[in-house]
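Hey, resending since the last one bounced:
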Amino acid sequence: MLHDDFGELEPTHMALLDEIVTKHPSLHTKVFELLSRLYDRQANQMRLTEVIIGRQRCIVDRFIQLLAFGFALPVIEKIYRMFREGQIDVSLVRYFVLEVLNIIEPPYSYEFVETFSPIVLDREILDVATTTKTPAVSDFIRHVSMTSMEKEQPPGRSSAIDSDSEYEVLDCGRVDFS
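The structure tokens again:
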């Protein structure tokens, strides 16, 4: 796939990578490395921006597939690192976050929350309007905020959070109870 004569990212190539990810967990690292190299290669091609972003989105879809089948932390770290280094368009990171939030559900591991929360809470990626109007985003932030507040409770005290409470999610995941 990385040969210099390689032209287009064909749907059959992507379907094959999806099958490998689905059926061969031992190859996840190799697929991750291949996708990383493919992504970098797309960014360096002299093409229309729309074409490059379309191809990169196809690769981001494969990263999401990899995440869905258990290779979550390396994928999240890679996407966020590329964003911080200016190697990925913010629209692709936003797409990644929204797609991931649509396929995951609680309970979340501590490592997942620590790795994924900075992306979700980054206002450059998800602005306040997107955060509040997208149920998956506000649900994730609410769950993470409530879980972290419960962990901060002193021993022997019950949580003051009641499931019917009205609250507003603030910047950095803090919760303001009304």
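The chain has eight helices and two strands.

Sorry for the duplicate.
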